Amino acid sequence: MKENLYDLLRRYEFNKTEPETLIQLVDRAIQRGGEAKEELALLRDAARRLLGPLRDGGLIQAVAPQDIGTVRSKTVGGVDGSFMPVGGAGGKWYVPLSCATLIFPEGINSSPQVTVESGIEVVHESESLNVGGLAACIEMALESKAILKFGSKFQNSILFIDGPIVDPPFYDNPDYVHHRSSAIRATVNNGNLVIACAKRVRDSFLKKVASDLLPAEIKYISRFPTDLQLLLFLFSEFWRDPTTADLVLATTPVNATAVGPDIYKKYQDEGVTVWSLFIQLTKTSSMLRLDLPTLDASDNGKPALSQIVDAVTAWSYPGHHIPLPVFLADEKCRIRTGCAEVLYQEIMTRTATADPLDQIVITQLR
Question: For 44-62, how does the pLDDT look when each residue is reduced to its tens digit (9 = 90+)?
Fold first, then answer.
């Protein structure tokens, strides 16, 4: 099999590394590999011990999708945003950003309507050393605007969002939290089901719930660094049961606002409570964490698991773990690195002047 260009580049750079450095790194890699293998065995053992009690306690369930046809006929939307900072010389960054909204007006068999809003923002490092974080906040404000537009226009529909409800998870600016919460609140108030799909999970609040459910097993639960590792191992053990072949594995919705980071409380102060669950559609599909916003902080506001499973299953093509509206919105809004770099070159080219000293400065800023 022919190696692709990236594989050839990696091997070239490996061979170019000085031998004194390379020998020690290879030895350490072998050592780390042995440690990882031992850790894998410990996590597998812990998952086998925990699966039965967590399943009996109702935290993990195997669910059969029910009302697929009805869900596929609903009006469904998908929202996602993208950004790519470029530049940086002199502390000035240009941020191409985009937000796409896809709407299937008459169900999955209808042609999607696509709306894209994009632009280029300027970010200075003097505002924040975390330029990527600041750019994310600008892009998420654009996404919140798209959520509000959908929620104000449609009723009793489904809206899939790429990413968690509390996003960015570190940004607690009161004006931003109010803006995003208002958009989500308006959407839910109109009877719409909002499902946020988090593909990159770093939280550990489900570990807290499991620890409260099984205090005697905390030593096994604590072996897992995050919720993602815990659920991946638990579900992989669950799939060994042949009766799960045509089912969907999921955790019962838990109140993330009650057990999550403090920023969730700020959203609750704005009237939005976040419930979360993990779902895996098939044995080979990737894990998703779903966030469900409600306006009721009590147990009465807990979303129905069957409704969530039906929605995600109905709108996910076989072989895909991401619902179709999210997948398409991601493709429509994605700003690739090369695209951002070409745009930056265009900006720099437009600054050309006849002054040689200006040209020197511009060259050094590229």
Answer: 999 999 999 999 999 999 9
**Residue 365 is assigned to a structural domain of this protein:** no
Q: What is the pLDDT of residues 71-83, one digit of tens each?
A: 999 999 999 999 8
Write the CATH number for 286: 3.30.2170
Provide the token pair at 34. 């042995």
Q: Cα–Cα distance between 284 and 239 in angstroms, integer?
A: 10
Terminal CA-CA length for the chain: 39
Counting every residue written for the chain, the total comes to 366
CA distance 327 to 160: 10
Tokens at 344, concatenated? 């930056």
Q: Is 359 helix (H, G, I), strand (E, B) or coil?
A: helix
The residues that bridge with 122 in the sheet, in sequence order, are 94
Does the residue 149 lie in any domain? yes
E strands within 46-192?
60-63, 76-83, 86-87, 92-104, 113-124, 158-162
